[in-house]
Amino acid sequence: MLTKMNSQKDTLFASPLGEVDGFQFDNSVVDVFPDMIQRSVPGYSAIISAIGLLSSRFAQADSNCYDLGCSLGAATLSMRHKITQPNCTIIAVDNSSAMLSRCEKIIARDTASTPVKLVYSDIQDIIIEKASVVVLNFTLQFIPVNERDAFIKKIYTGLRPGGLLILSEKLMFNDTRQQILQTEMHHAFKKANGYSDMEISQKRAALENVLIPESFSQHKTRLLQSGFDNAEVWFQYFNFASMIALK
Ligand code: GEK
User: Fold this and answer.
1) Rounded to the nearest whole angstrom, what is the distance from the C-alpha of residue 69 to the centroid of ligand 1?
2) Main-chain phi, psi angles of 147, to 5 degrees
3) What percent of the chain has pLDDT over 70?
4) Model confidence, pTM
5) The domain containing residue 99 runs over which residues?
């Protein structure tokens, strides 16, 4: 699995930075990404495994399966190892050239047979067609909020009947006590995984205005208004959740 590959330990925010710049998916992040996401996103490995299981059930013959915001291809590889339907192509898209070129090397070392097409693009600019599975694993949260409705509608349009959208996101909560509790529990999760208070607070500053979380009810409303028949949370660990929406 990708998370067990040679990944440097994430110490990007371990020294005092003074002014913290906005977070970017550059080469320094690529080098530590598997360690970073594993120690920062509760349930990440469980979600990656389930993406494979869900894809094996929902991938249709002669269709495309999309991994939008693929980073180093963890979800792509999970799908690739579980899809058995003929003539499926996995289309993995990211707009970080650093991520995509490392992803290309990782995919090249993998021997599963379903073809993978890597696309360097903003995920909003690609054509989505003949889709049976679309994965947005912690990516929608980086798209400007006012552009999310049109983007989800575009995904819905590109999905075939019976198609599946897997949407994993950091969540926010309308209830103030829940918001505080879940945020504190996420920080406790990160501390238990070896991050210091300074690393946690500097990373939070870097992600402010870059990662914009919404509530589950905002996501559900958008998914239903875009045309999906239904949308539910299938996994949640503190303020990180993965949803499935069916066409
Ligand atoms: C995983 N899904 O390991 N267009 C294309 N890519 C984008 C855009 C955009 N507009 N915005 C952000 N990205 C992965 C993890 S990480 C989540 C996803 C995180 C890309 C960005 O370059 C990065 O690679 C990815 O989305 C987000 O299952 O780091 O919290």
Assistant:
1) 4
2) -105, -5
3) 90
4) 0.94
5) 44-172+211-246
